[in-house]
Sequence to fold (132 residues):
Amino acid sequence: MLREFRDFIIKGNAFELAIGVILAIAFGAVVVAFTEGVLMALVSAIVGKPDFNALSFDLNGTPIQYGRVLTALLNLILVGGVLFIVVKAVNRVRGDSKPAETDHDLLAQIRDELRRVPPIARPSAPQRTVGA
Fold:
């Protein structure tokens, strides 16, 4: 059983997943630092506040903190935008900038090959008579 566990950990999926998680944590720290240090500073320079957490109103004596939602939404939009730009840049470097055209070309090649090969003779469907 120990050997099976060792083989499981060493073989591809678990090991690659562990590396992926570690890299994701490190990348997450970079994204948080960039969001808090650069993007939110820009928001603060434009709007006057780095976050909107203090915004709230009372409803029957209970504070409704809608500012926290606004701050989280702004963070989501900013981080999503930055990640979109990073993914686009990585795809461009890897040469994956036009996957739709590549897929289209592949499908066109498959279509052309299917047209070139004669269709397989299919038996005709049995005729049904009405009322029989």
Summary: The longest strand covers residues 57-59. The chain has a mean pLDDT of 79.
